[in-house]
Specification:
Blueprint (H helix, E strand, L loop, with lengths): L1 H26 L8 E2 L1 H11 L2 H10 L1 H11 L10 H8 L3 H13 L4 H17 L7 E5 L7 E3 L3 E5 L9 H5 L4 H5 L6 H13 L9 H20 L7 H12 L5 H6 L5
Parallel strand pairs: 1-2, 2-4
Antiparallel strand pairs: 3-4
Helix pairs in contact: 2-3, 3-4, 7-10, 7-11, 10-11, 11-12
Amino acid sequence: MKKLSLILLLLLIVCVGCQWGLRSNDDQGKTDAVVIERLDRMELLYLTTGDFAALQQMKTMYPAETRILIEEVLQLGMVDEPDINTRFLLFFQDSTLQSLMRDVELQYADVEDVTEGLTNAFSNLSELLPDMIVPRVYMQIGSLDQSVVVDDTLVGVSLDKYLGADNPVYQRYGYSERQRSMMTRQYIVPDCVAFYLLRHYPMPIVGDDTTHLKRTHMARIQYVVNQVTDSRVFSNDEVSEVEKYMTSHPEVSIKQLLSAKNNQ
């Protein structure tokens, strides 16, 4: 009886171990949900109240993101310069930037839809390009400069560039109707994917017809963005040509498409 009990116990352990193994294998390859880091909230707190603790929290929790914001987006100087905190604070006392900050606070209190869109898009992208790392995404407030900033594994969204086509600041600063139509919440996910792809598959910089090559390469990027977002957010003649090419050449992978240096 004791021997039988021991055998049953061993079998139970083996079965449990198999279940763990199967569960682990089932989970392999799944992309975790994208978590958006809200750097913009700490930034907003510091810029509206002068609360030094908020700035310290920015630098401690998000050192790379804060450096990119101050040094590359706003170009205020080096993040470790003695008076950089004051320069950062005074820069945003401008009435236009104050208006943009208020709009960001109102429009982006909830970003659940953006989070879901990014999660789905990067999950789809991982299936097409398994070697590509899903980036960390964060939000910030810039000064109407770059919409999206990217590093090898970081994507930063400047919410001041996505406040809607009818935003009066955009109209006052002379953005065209076409430009303003793309400065909306709906373009955040496509832009994040597009700029991240461009980071890893950059534009060609040499060739007899560099302009044409760049247009072709950008169309390939936009085609992939349409695929992973399950939309036609980018629709033009060049993208249509890429779509026709990929339909008639099913053997061509997305990696081969993006890596190609020549025309289709």
